[in-house]
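2024-03-11 09:14:02 INFO receiving multi-entity request
2024-03-11 09:14:02 INFO entity count = two
2024-03-11 09:14:03 INFO echoing inputs for audit
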Amino acid sequence: MILYALRRLVYLVPVAFGVSLLVFALVHLAPGDAISAIVPPDAPQEVVDKLRAYYGFDKPLPVQYFRWLVVTLSGDFGTSIGTGRPVSEEVGGAFLNTIVLAIAACIVAFTLAIILGTAAGYAKSRIVDRLVTSIALTGISVPNYWLAIVLVIIFSVELGWLPPMGLGPESATGWRLDFAHLRYMVLPTIALSMIPLGVMTRTVRSTIKEILSSEFVTALQAKGMNDRQILLHVLKNAAPTCLAVMGLQAGNLIGGSILIETVFSWPGTGFLLNSAIFRRDLPILQGTTLVLSFFFMMLNLTVDMIQTMVDPRIKRG
Amino acid sequence: MSNLLSVKDLHVTFRTPDRTVHAVNGVSFDVKRGETLGILGESGSGKSVTLRSILKLHPEHRTKWSGSITLEGDEILTMTGRDLANLRGNRVSMIFQEPATAFDPVFTIGQQISETVRRHTGKSHADSMKRAKELLELVRIPSPATRLNAYPHEMSGGMRQRAMIALALSCNPSLLLADEPTTALDATVQIQVLLLIRELQRELDLGVIFVTHDIGVAVEVSDRVGVMYAGKLVELASVEQMVDTPKHPYSRGLLASTVHDGMRGQRLEAIPGAPPDLAEVPAACSFAPRCKFVEPKCLASPPPLNSVGDSHLVRCVVAA
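2024-03-11 09:21:47 INFO inference complete, emitting structure
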């Protein structure tokens, strides 16, 4: 198993290079110029050229790529053009904030989805099944940024129970685990968990329904297993499919929701990406995209590993 | 010898919002300890439904049972919940048609046998695993200790069916239900599994009900054979009687439509027509529309089961 994990890790190296090339190319192929975004329109040409040379933008693209790759590999992601602070600092902080929110949303969404989906999958009455299916459909269909605004109007503006924006009191930029910070998380977490909740509920429901109709469940009944013991069998069978979808959903959340983070002014990667795009802040864009891609790759690997552990039919080849 | 299982006037009806199906319409038979009863019939004749009713394996909310099924004097049809679960896999167990789908794919064979042992005997994990290994030896699976850790997909079809038999025998049942256990297997493996079942049945003095659509298989394993048609037993007799002097036109048709030695060049007989729709309880002999010997009295009322000799029953007014 450990050997298999190591081998999979090695396979990731070429993928990582591909990703880095793609990230670099996409950012440089996009229209717009970082330098013209930070200098005043009437700046003399020498200043612009000097800045261009300072950031290395005067070199040919392949040279820029390798320079960028070498310094990135050494852990230096460069300096933000917009703020002048190191990219690693900016991205690191934003990444942690996003992770915190994503984990909270995952916990809420997946827990509810497993409960609701299992209940609907088992439901003999059509009412329960229909109810859960409509909840799931609502979760998928309602635009989450709209829901976010509605939540803010109800719970912050009208009722005044929860803060409408930011991640902590007194314009805090770092997340901490205490009651004051947790209060700021409630609304973004709810808004962010809606789509994964809907998708996962549907997945769990259909997977459980399919498994319950299989012959081995009848065979388990025929050997005298009680409902709780049969449920364990059903859940273990449902796990591989559900884990795969969970991995994808978690990946989406880690990517940061630009919309949700913008509505709540949550200083995460989505928020950071959004402002970096507007400012043509190439180092930030590259750094964030790269970190996110790597995280996504690791997440996929983790899901694959768990699937392999749960489902013996997947070959460890 | 007293009866191990006694089925009396069993009716099984399935109700869905769209339609009602009268799958079994008054089936009665007995099984003694150490005896094998073969139930023969084509698809939709109600043979599997009858068999599964003995464990009440049909979805409770859609199935209506009536009549009586008693095992050693205990009524099964009124059992629910814990009583039923204590019976299943313990006193009565079942072998399924497709061992590939009847095992849970994500648990090892050892886990699946030992959990049954633990469920009914309360043995420890180690003891139940030891029992599972003994059982794999009993059904002659080579290197049983390694096979305990194998997953179902890592075994061949024949091996899986042996494991299924081991699982069924894990708690020393008195009655074994076999639902076409050899249909999904290769011809050569089929014979091995049949011989194994017959041998274990004698060794352990089991009552066996063996459901099949294959006359050859039924004759091979059974002491007595019942032929089912449209949810009813149309003939019940010993194997010898059934082979030598089948009385019911349907049984005769079935026996005539099988291929055996010395038939080269002869025309193979087939039964014309198809079995009836079971949406309604039949008002006449169900086989009459396909019968060569049909008479007006066949259509007047459903024929009763008549005795035509030493424990040989036939549901036909023409043959009796």
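2024-03-11 09:21:48 INFO post-check: The mean pLDDT of chain A is 84.
2024-03-11 09:21:48 INFO post-check: The first helix of chain A runs from residue 2 to 29.
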